[in-house]
Amino acid sequence: MTPVIALVGRPNVGKSTLFNCLTRTRDALVADWPGLTRDRKYGEGKLGEQPYIVVDTGGVSGYEEGLDSEMAEQSYAAIQEADFVIFLVDARDGVTASDHSLANHLRQAGKPMQLVVNKVDGLNEDTVLNDFYELGLGDPFPLAASHNRGVTSLITDVLDGFPDAEPVDTEALYGQGIRLAIVGRPNVGKSTLVNRMLGEERVVVYDHPGTTMDSIAIPFTRDEINYTLIDTAGIRRRKSVREAVEKFSIIKTLQAIQSANVVILVLDARDGVVEQDLHMLHHVLKSGRSVVMAVNKWDGMSEEQKDEVRRGLNRRLDFMGWADLHFISALHGTNVGHLFKSAQRAYEAATSQWSTHFLTELMQGIVQEHQPPMVNGRRIKLRYAHLGGRNPPVIVVHGNQVDKLPGSYKRYMENTFREVLELRGTPVRLEFRSGD
Ligand code: GDP
Ligand code: GDP
User: How many independent structural domains does the chain possess?
Assistant: First the structure.
């Protein structure tokens, strides 16, 4: 599972600045679902091929002095759900009372952690660092987050401690079954759907060496196809159905998306598509995983209501034309079988292999149909194409001046590749490389 790194510390020490460096993204998932504590931000980053999740505890209070109780609660919750804690302090402020109080908590929590002294820019590092030994948390690490100094070596050090979290060799996993993640907001019906899927007569859930009671990966077979269900809802434990003990968790959702081949995104017909659904979908798309959409609770809706939901879906999901969408009732089992078919199709599309010869011929056909535009009197030349990755398929196009290709031409190419290669259910990535 992807390691989770929490950033804790007083307000204004530079947590958000570091968060942005580590995630290089403006679209962090913010935990503002009903029933969840606010003001924890979740983002994803990668060091080389190694993905990680960063949780920022935000500046809850604006208090400069002292951790107020809400702030402390945020930090404690973040520490608890993290695999590693980065404790930030401010070089310019020296050690404060609230640094001491957080340090005490961290010592008791016993989580792997690193003390990081931020804002060392323009200061004498050695002198500054010396002050912070009194926190009793080992060697402090110097950082200047807003100058992006020390960030890469910090995250490299942190991830070095996770030998088990080496990137999954996805190539080796192909053929071992389709990894399905069922994700969605709280109460859309994920648990009901998981139980419905696993409870089907044609589904055989089997014991798997290494599967523990707490394992969240449930292997099963349906119509001679192997699947592994990655359970984000925390409800189904092998042979028994247990009370939902864990609340909805963004971390589990992000981890499940990352370790899946195909994501089934569950929507609630009664709500239509809401902002949080789009947020989650955005994360799935960024991860490159295949997608099947399930509009749940389709039972008991009047024709007018159904029409209205369909109109809303067409409007808000018009960019998802390449993914299957099913109207289902997890409660009654209606159309649940279609989800398996779509997942299988999406998996096949996402993991197909095409030879360089085949992709190059296809690319030449695309170019013949519509020539790329002239740039400074020279025509952009596309030479050959090869497959650079699977799940999602990455098509690498080689040529010259490819950085000048207009977006509209890239979209034309993508759409044609998608159509000819029958890439239903999977995102596709086109990469362009210039070689002059
Ligand atoms: P947070 O409240 O802990 O999330 O802190 P922010 O990331 O919002 O940073 C608080 C202030 O410190 C901002 O004005 C940042 O620009 C500044 N800051 C962050 N990192 C550094 C740094 O490395 N050096 C200096 N000089 N200022 C920094
Ligand atoms: P989760 O939080 O996403 O796991 O959602 P649950 O599976 O716990 O379902 C939330 C509520 O929606 C429960 O009361 C379910 O009985 C109800 N529910 C789930 N699926 C359906 C469905 O297909 N139709 C209807 N009418 N209710 C459903």
Answer: 3
